[in-house]
Structures are given as C-alpha cells and as structure tokens.
Amino acid sequence: MKIRKAVICAAGWGTRFLPITRSQPKEMLPLVDKPVIQYTVEEAINSGIEQIVLVTALGKRAIEDYFDRCFELEYFLEQRRETKLLKRMRELSNLADICYIRQKEQLGLGHAILTASTVIGAGSFSLALRLISFLLLLLI
C-alpha cells in the first residue's frame, strides 16, 4: 500500500528561537533561499506524498499564506513582465494538496496528530518529525 498522506506538525511555540519566533513562525525562518517548512513539504512530495496536512496553531498564518496563491501579486508580476518570478510563485502554490488543521491548544505531539486524524482518517500516513529543527540546527 502506497502512503499518500503526510502530517507535518508546525504548531509549537518556537521557544528555542526567541525572540525572533515571537513575530515569525520558526518554520518560516529562511534557510538559503526558502523557508525551512518548504524543504519539509518538498521532501514529502518527492517521496510520493499527494496530500499534506499541516497542523498549525495561533500565530502561524504566515505558513498558510506562503503556500497559497496571491492573485494581486501575480497580477503585479504579470504587468511588470516578471515571468520567472511569476512562474516560481505559481509553482509554489501548486506544490501539493495542502490542508491546514489548527491545534487550538498546544498539548504535545500526540495531541497534534490526534487533531489531524479527522483529515487523515483510518488509513496509513507519514509523519514528518524534527526535520525543521534539524535544518535549523545546521545554522547554529
């Protein structure tokens, strides 16, 4: 049986990276030319995952906005004939079928996975753990 769904937990407070994570989710911190969460999503896609469930929390809207389309920006880039940037923006929003579940209370990893269970259902799924922390440790 091929695993087609992945859960990526991105609901933590990011206390190890305070004070920067007070205003920006740790998952959105840049590593070279993209935020670390994008590496996780791309790795899941390259592994054959078709649907990604991102468990987020209060203050993580930047993650949702990052993977979503921005028609106003696309229009602006189109008007300026910035075709390479426009192509990159559209590719980013088409990376995968991503849905978001908000963990209303941060009660740990088990609770985050339980929060995603309504979308995952009874089938098998992949769980991305600590990849984001690992990538950030490379910076230290």
What's the helix and strand layout?
Elements: E1 5-9, E2 30-31, E3 34-35, H1 36-46, E4 51-56, H2 61-67, H3 71-79, H4 83-93, E5 97-102, H5 109-120, E6 126-128, H6 131-137
Parallel strand pairs: 1-4, 1-6, 4-5
Antiparallel strand pairs: 2-3
Helix pairs in contact: 1-6
Overview of this structure, please?
The protein has 140 residues and is α/β, with parallel strands linked by helices. The protein has one domain (5-67, 96-137): Alpha-Beta Complex (Spore Coat Polysaccharide Biosynthesis Protein SpsA, Chain A), CATH 3.90.550. Helices cover 41% and strands 17% of the residues. The chain contains 6 helices and 6 strands; from the N terminus they run βββαβαααβαβα. The strands form 2 sheets. A 4-stranded parallel sheet has the order 5-4-1-6, with helices on both faces. Strand 2 and strand 3 (34-35) form a beta hairpin. The termini are far apart.
Short description:
The protein is an alpha/beta fold and 140 residues long. The protein has six helices and six strands; from the N terminus they run βββαβαααβαβα. α1 (36-46) crosses α6 (131-137).
Query: Biggest sheet, strands in spatial order?
Result: 5-4-1-6
User: Biggest β-sheet: count, sense, barrel?
Assistant: 4 strands, parallel
Number of discrete helical segments: 6
Name the CATH homologous superfamily: Spore Coat Polysaccharide Biosynthesis Protein SpsA, Chain A
Helix content: 40-55%
Count of the domains: 1
From the 3D structure, determine the CATH topology. Answer: Spore Coat Polysaccharide Biosynthesis Protein SpsA, Chain A
CATH class: Alpha Beta
Tell me the structural class. Answer: alpha/beta
Overall shape: globular
CATH architectural group: Alpha-Beta Complex
* pLDDT averaged residue by residue: 86
Between the first and last Cα atoms, what is the distance in angstroms? 39 Å
- Rg on CA atoms, Å: 16 Å
- Enumerate the spans where pLDDT stays under 50 for 5 or more consecutive residues: none
